[in-house]
Each structure stands twice: as C-alpha cells, then as structure tokens.
C-alpha cells in the first residue's frame, strides 16, 4: 500500500517553513546596511506595540489612543531612571506598570462603551495625554522633550549599538508573538474570541465580558508601554509629538492591513508598513494618500488583512476559511 502523508503532518511542515522564513528575515538585518538595520529595529518595536493593540481588538474594541500608553512607558521609565537613579530593568518595569495601571483605571470606566463611543474616548485620552506632557514642562520638558537618554543595560551588557539593540528588540517582538500564539490556544483566548463574536451570548454562558475586556485592555497597554520603554532607549529622545494621534492611527492601520484576527497580522502589518514612512519621508502628503488608499482597498477586498491571503494562511498552517 502506498504511504500518504496525513493532514496533520502538512500543517507541521507548513509551520516549519514559516519558522524558516521568519528566521531568514530576522537574520538579514545583521548583514545589511545600517539603514536597513534601523528599519528592522523600528519594525520589531512596532510588532511589539501593535501586538498589544491586537490583544485589545481581540475582544471587539479598537483603541485610537494606543500611543498614549507607549508614551506612559517611555516617560515613566525615563523619569524613574533620572529622578530615582534606578537601573534600566527597574525603571522599565515601572514604566510598564504605569501604562498598565492607567489602562486599568481608564478601561474599567470606558469599556462599558461600545463601538464609536469607545473609539472617540480613547482618541480623546490620547490627545489629553499629549497635552499633559506638553503642559507639565517642569517634569517632562514640555515641547523640548527629554534628550540624552542612556542606552538599555541588562546584566552588565549595554545595548548601545544598532546591532546589539536589534537583538533586544527582536527578542521582545518574538516573545510577544509567541505570547499571542499561545494565548490563542488557551481557554482564555477562546473566551476573548467569544466576547468579540457575541458579547451577549458570552455573558449568558457565565463569562464576564467587562472583566475580560479590561484584562485585554490592560495587557495590551502593558505591551505598548514596554514598546515605549525600548523606543526611548533606542532613539535616546522622547517628546510629546512622538506620541501624537497620527501615531495611534498608524498602529491601527498596521493592524488592519496585517489582519485583525490573525496572530501574524501585527507582524505582517509592521513588516509592510514600517519602511514606508522612511522611504517616502520627502513626500508626506503622498504617504498619507498611499496609507488611505491601501486601507480602503484592504477593507474592501481583503477584510481579513494580508495575513488572510491563502498563501500566507497555508504557510501559517491554517485554512483561510477559519478566519472571520
């Protein structure tokens, strides 16, 4: 009898192929130009931040104030390091905790809102955070921001070059993707999906929709705060304009174009869209037109995002029809 490969073996081979492709992409920047390495660092940071937004969207909510939590992580860690003489790890944990704490207080109140009302409140919060950073100049430096931020240092190793920092950013991005992939297979991930698909039905089965949405909002904002901590150490400078509403919109576009319901969506969206602002830096208006046109086309013809394309779905070991 002729041996045939079982269906369960095919996803395994597809997953190995996907890991091989990702490993090749991750290794390329080490052998590329400094500009490509810089884009790779930014892409890793965006993957980390957009993964947090994807976690919030997993419960059916969309935040337009995500950059505010990036700012909380960045400013919180930098100020803790300067005023309390804390190391990178301690100050970074405080920055992440600040983002999570604010998300808990804010989310507990506003996550009872639905649809456009939640989106508008998060947008207003993001703008309020930016104005507070501008006005509280005695602490935040106002419009001038905070410069000369030292590099990240862990276990005596200073990540003071692009090559070293890329390794740190890549590890953070990979762990965030792994976290979302594992979460999707756990009962908690299934509960979040149930809240997204039908909140009333999820509530009737005994799930606390509000608590699950708050949990996702806090965890997603903490990932954004971690992205802010790393971004501040990489750039060496923070200012309120680094976290304006347009940045939040950019994160949303990355998520939508990559795929809102796919674990790989933030990764695909960040890899595709991170280079565009740098490549079209001399044509800002054209850049916004391209963003808008791409978003309209994706929503019209590929509502599942680029990660929902049949080739990418098969490579990830999933069937396209399983996405919704």
Structure description:
This protein has 324 residues and is mainly α. 71% of the residues lie in helices and 2% in strands. The chain is built from 15 helices and 2 strands. Strands 1-2 form a two-stranded antiparallel ribbon. A hairpin with a 2-residue loop joins strand 1 (152-154) and strand 2. It is globular and about 50 Å long. Residues 1-9 and 319-324 have low confidence and may be disordered.
Put the structure in a nutshell:
By secondary structure, the protein is mainly alpha-helical. Helices cover 71% and strands 2% of the residues.
List the helices and strands and how they pair.
Elements lengths: L8 H19 L6 H24 L8 H19 L3 H23 L5 H20 L1 H4 L11 E3 L2 E3 L2 H24 L1 H11 L1 H6 L4 H27 L9 H14 L6 H9 L1 H5 L4 H18 L8 H6 L9
